[in-house]
């Protein structure tokens, strides 16, 4: 069985090609398998956000192909791409993740409503997810009534609600204190283990990096290191 | 869920939501107020025309109105008068002798239409007695009294008691003249008519014209306004050789006004709607700019354009629907109030309105028959004006929106 989730070939993203070109992503290959728990690290401006936006279908590469679960998303039209994201990719942003006028529960349900999931199944999934993120008692709170860490946990629950192929998180812990950051990482790791959810997240935080199973280092838009932090699976240790 | 989001979003920035609600309310209110006012003006103008000027229906000899030849009196006038008075739909009927002539004083003269009337019936049909502003009106014994309009009195410097001479031709073509004493000065809501029409007793005029007890015109007041046409037809059938006219034919400018006033109110409505649209476009633009990141996030998560558009449409719709009843209620309450008490427009100038034939007290009428149209117009304006801001939201690129 093919376990490939993300297969990015030779992708590049150039900003300001006419004036002073910035190669935010420069000829990158990326291969991600089901169940991975991967950290994307690198100095500021190295292209982490750009890479995540590309594999999340929020941005298009100037060259190369990105294949997710067998679909070449670089060839999709705008509307198809929106629909593809809805059904295949879970998002956790750095901040401002939740719709402020909806309760935590409604935020998680929202994505399933967009997917037209039946009510019974929605209810079941919502309860299950809130149990997993440990916020059953805060389901009916509005985002402003939650701490930053709690909001990020709800965002993770929402990302998982759509049963995506993978969850993408751009610096999910950047605005959290270290206790909340660890707590979030614990929950992500647990979901990775229990539900075999594939995660790829960018981070600056050394202690967060240590929790990853695989660490990809970007410098100036190129992958400079790809290490299996805990060499359990068949990931090769590549140091360049 | 989209509805829940839209509904709760409308409460996020209350000041702004209230602005939109109020603009819709004010738009709807002003639209209806304009129509109510026009309706009231129209109604009062029509009432004035019928009750003080033309009556519902007038009868003349076939060619009389061509050049007011006094010889063309109503054939069998007294019989016809009795006949129409006995009709159940007819409230009252007044006979008039009419001729065109010259009113002279030692200092000047003016062309007039001389109306010879029977004071008692005339008072009931054209309410001439109620229009008197100076003097006493006709006294029973005298046949040489004249009632003149304020405009003419001013022009000729006439006061009650003043002497005037009326000159005109009789049925045989001889010029005859009679001396009259001003018994009263009247003022109606229609200054041009006041200048032209003078009233004397029918006996006095008939004597000078030499037509005995004949007369030229019968003016009918009916019980109701709505079956004028039908009664006109019946009368015309009964009196084939006579000219039977309704107020619409006698006063075509009033009929024209009835027809054009709708267009005027429509133009004013469109102007109000443009102002409303401007307000909504601005506020919705602000609402969307403020939520750029949030909208970008929703698009990133997989909310498609149709749903996003629906969301913005719903928000506008909720605000509009919330504002509409407020505007309607205020409009209804105010028109109901002023419909009872009357709205005094004399600040606009009493003379200005009366020179166009309007009374200065207007009784606005709620335009029930236009309610649906106004409502649709307001809703349509609201929806159309959310298209531009919605287009802005639909063009948002998630990456750019999220970075802001
Ligand atoms: N919209 C843009 N227009 C032009 N240049 C851009 C744009 N977005 C990013 N860049 C440039 O592309 C490069 C990569 O940016 P990116 O945001 O991907 O880095 P990053 O690794 O996420 O940085 P950080 O750790 O600060 O979040 C940077 O040099 C940045 O200046
Ligand atoms: Mg970044």
TrEMBL record, chain A:
InterPro entries recorded: AAA+_ATPase, ABC_transporter-like_ATP-bd, ABC_transporter-like_CS, ABC_transpr_LolD-like, MacB-like_ATP-bd, P-loop_NTPase
Keywords: ATP-binding, Nucleotide-binding, Transport
Stored SMART domains: AAA
Annotated GO MF terms: ATP binding; ATP hydrolysis activity; transmembrane transporter activity
Matching Pfam families: ABC_tran
A GO CC term attached to the entry: plasma membrane
Domain of life: Bacteria
ABC transporter domain sequence ranges: 6-240
Record family assignment: Belongs to the ABC transporter superfamily. Macrolide exporter (TC 3.A.1.122) family.
Record protein name field: ABC transporter ATP-binding protein
Origin species: Niastella caeni
From TrEMBL, chain B:
Similarity comment text for this entry: Belongs to the ABC-4 integral membrane protein family. LolC/E subfamily.
Top-level taxonomic group: Bacteria
Keywords: Cell membrane, Membrane, Transmembrane, Transmembrane helix
This protein's GO CC annotations: plasma membrane protein complex
GO biological process: lipoprotein localization to outer membrane
Protein name in the entry: ABC transporter permease
Location(s), subcellular: Cell membrane
Stored InterPro entries: ABC3_permease_C, Lipoprotein-release_system, MacB_PCD
Domain ABC3 transporter permease C-terminal residue range list: 266-398
The MacB-like periplasmic core domain, residue ranges: 17-237
TM regions (residue ranges): 18-38, 264-288, 308-334, 368-388
Membrane association type: Multi-pass membrane protein
Pfam families assigned: FtsX (PF02687), MacB_PCD (PF12704)
Organism: Niastella caeni
């Amino acid at each position: 069985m093919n376990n490939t989730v993300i297969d990015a070939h030779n992708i590049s993203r150039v900003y300001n090609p006419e004036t002073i070109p910035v190669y935010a992503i420069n000829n990158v290959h990326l291969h991600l398998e089901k169940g991975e728990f991967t950290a994307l690290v690198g100095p500021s401006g190295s292209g982490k956000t750009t890479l995540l936006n590309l594999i999340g279908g929020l941005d298009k590469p100037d060259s190369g192909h990105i294949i997710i679960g067998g679909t070449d998303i670089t060839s999709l039209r705008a509307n198809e791409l929106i629909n593809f994201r809805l059904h295949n990719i879970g998002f956790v942003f750095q901040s401002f993740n939740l719709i402020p006028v909806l309760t935590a529960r409604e935020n998680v349900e929202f994505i399933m409503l967009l997917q037209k999931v039946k009510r019974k199944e929605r209810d079941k999934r919502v309860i299950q997810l809130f149990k997993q993120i440990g916020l059953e008692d805060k389901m009916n709170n509005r985002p402003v009534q939650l701490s930053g860490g709690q909001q990020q946990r709800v965002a993770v629950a929402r990302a998982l609600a759509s049963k995506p192929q993978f969850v993408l998180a751009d610096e999910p812990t950047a605005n959290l204190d270290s206790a909340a950051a660890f707590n979030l990482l614990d929950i992500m790791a647990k979901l990775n283990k229990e539900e075999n959810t594939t995660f790829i997240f960018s981070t600056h935080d050394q202690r967060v990096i240590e929790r990853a199973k695989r660490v990809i280092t970007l410098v100036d838009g190129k992958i400079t290191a790809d290490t299996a932090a805990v060499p359990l699976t068949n990931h090769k240790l590549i140091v360049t | 869920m989209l509805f829940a989001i839209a509904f709760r979003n409308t409460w996020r920035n209350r000041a702004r939501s209230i602005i939109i609600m109020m603009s819709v309310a004010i738009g709807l209110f002003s639209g209806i107020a304009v129509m109510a006012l026009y309706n009231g003006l129209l109604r009062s103008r029509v009432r004035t025309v019928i009750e003080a000027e033309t009556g519902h229906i007038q009868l003349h000899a076939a060619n009389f109105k061509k050049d007011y030849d006094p010889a063309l009196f109503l054939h069998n006038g007294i019989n016809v008068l009795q006949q129409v008075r006995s009709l159940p739909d007819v409230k009252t009927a007044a006979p008039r002798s009419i001729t065109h002539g010259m009113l002279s004083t030692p200092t000047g003269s003016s062309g007039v239409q001389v109306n010879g009337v029977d004071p008692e019936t005339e008072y009931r049909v054209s309410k001439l007695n109620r229009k008197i502003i100076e003097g006493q009106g006709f006294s029973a014994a005298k046949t040489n009294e004249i009632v003149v309009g304020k405009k003419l009195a001013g022009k000729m410097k006439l006061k009650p008691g003043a002497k005037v001479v009326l000159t005109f031709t009789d049925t045989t073509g001889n010029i005859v003249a009679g001396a009259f004493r001003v018994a009263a000065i009247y003022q109606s809501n229609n200054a041009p008519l006041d200048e032209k029409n003078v009233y004397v007793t029918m006996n006095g005029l008939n004597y000078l014209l030499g037509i005995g007890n004949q007369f030229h015109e019968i003016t009918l007041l009916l019980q109701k306004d709505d079956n004028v046409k039908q009664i006109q037809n019946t009368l015309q059938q009964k009196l084939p050789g006579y000219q039977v006219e309704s107020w619409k034919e006698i006063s075509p400018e009033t009929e024209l006004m009835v027809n054009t006033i709708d267009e005027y109110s429509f133009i004013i409505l469109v102007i109000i709607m443009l102002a409303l649209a401007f307000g909504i476009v601005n506020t919705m633009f602000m609402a969307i700019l403020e939520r750029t990141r949030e909208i970008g996030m929703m698009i990133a998560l997989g909310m498609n354009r149709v749903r996003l558009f629906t969301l913005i449409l719903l928000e506008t719709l909720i605000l509009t629907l919330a504002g509409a009843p407020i505007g309607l209620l205020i409009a209804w309450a105010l028109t109901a109030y002023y419909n009872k008490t009357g709205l005094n427009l004399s600040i606009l100038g009493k003379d200005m309105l009366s020179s166009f034939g309007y009374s200065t007290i207007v009784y606005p009428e709620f335009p029930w028959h236009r309610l649906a149209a106004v409502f649709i117009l307001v809703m349509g304006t609201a929806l159309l004006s959310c298209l531009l801001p919605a287009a802005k939201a639909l063009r948002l690129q998630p990456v750019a929106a999220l970075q802001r």
